[in-house]
Write a structure and sequence with these properties.
alpha/beta, five-stranded mixed sheet, 11 helices
Length: 313
């Protein structure tokens, strides 16, 4: 039994049981991977993968247990390597963040700027996706940190840390009558075509919930994955927009009017997601605290060790 065999079975599982792709990713040969997996199975006395001829078609029940252990071992090995890097040089390395468009566009720029000034030798990369993709990038090790509003709380293998709460606004062309509704109501909004987020994004479920609770069926004529697209089509007067409040800037969005809608919808909570028991370098804690000042290193480390979440905002 050796670490290389663990890497082989882990990568084969990651690649959807495609041994050729796994071999390419590991810079080795397909027959070599197959041989090592067979030897590993023989040593364990079980089959990790079900086969149809020479093709792998499924993971067996004992194979799922083996793969879970292999993932933990490989992750711990990576943490060991990071410990060495940490104490060799605390200010050099890389940080990968997975997040949604709204966070990347409207919330993170100032945080990223300050971090890069403080840690100029840390290579920072941003990966964008919908909330579920964000969570999966963290679980797969593609990203060190995930930042999103929905979905992160649904993954048991992620530690969930609440960062801040936010709500929504309605945007429209400057002369649109919705801007003069006082007070603004869901009934008034429902009278017009609506442009808002795709179902997988930015608290859309709470928008749907609010209308459903009043027995209303909103006329959503267009849904998009980011706020800039929504605002563009609202500017074209194709409907009114329901946006995250953070996505409206009076200076940048001079062609649109805005009215606050926080009294109509439940607040949403943006969270940071981290792999349970992950080992983080000093500058990762610094980035987290720069994004959410209440999340000190002590609080984050306590949550990681305990595998839970910090309850307070």
């Amino acid at each position: 039994m050796n670490l290389q065999q663990l890497r082989y079975i882990h990568e084969v599982a990651r690649r959807g049981l495609n041994v050729t792709e796994a071999a390419d990713a590991l810079f080795t040969s397909q027959p070599g991977v197959s041989k090592q997996i067979r030897q590993f199975e023989a040593e364990l006395g079980i089959e990790i993968f079900e086969r149809h001829g020479k093709r792998l078609v499924a993971v067996t029940e004992p194979g799922r247990a083996v793969l879970a252990i292999a993932e933990r071992v490989l992750r711990d090995l990576d943490d060991l390597q990071q410990v060495g890097s940490e104490f060799a040089n605390e200010t050099v390395g890389s940080l990968s963040i997975a997040t949604t468009h709204t966070q990347a566009r409207y919330v993170l720029p100032a945080v990223v700027r300050d971090f890069m000034r403080r840690y100029p030798q840390v290579k920072l990369s941003l990966h964008q996706g919908n909330p579920r993709q964000v969570a999966e990038m963290v679980l797969d090790g593609v990203a060190d940190i995930g930042i999103a509003t929905e979905a992160i709380a649904d993954y048991e293998d992620l530690v969930m840390l609440p960062c801040y709460q936010w709500n929504r606004c309605v945007v429209a062309t400057p002369r649109h009558p919705i801007l003069h509704e006082s007070p603004l109501t869901l009934e008034a909004i429902a009278r017009y075509p609506i442009i808002t987020y795709d179902d997988a994004f930015t608290g859309r479920s709470l928008i749907n919930k609010a209308f459903l609770g009043r027995g209303l069926k909103p006329n959503v004529v267009l849904s998009a994955i980011d706020s800039d697209v929504i605002k563009k089509y609202v500017e074209m007067d194709l409907g009114i927009g329901i946006l995250a409040r953070m996505a409206y800037d009076a200076e940048e969005d001079r062609r649109l009017g805005m009215v606050d809608a926080s009294h109509l919808f439940e607040s949403s909570t943006t969270r940071i997601g981290l792999r349970k028991r992950a080992w983080l370098r000093t500058y990762v804690f610094a980035f987290i605290e720069g994004f959410a000042p209440h999340l000190s290193r002590r609080i984050v480390e306590s949550a990681l060790i305990g595998g839970g979440s910090d309850p307070g905002l």
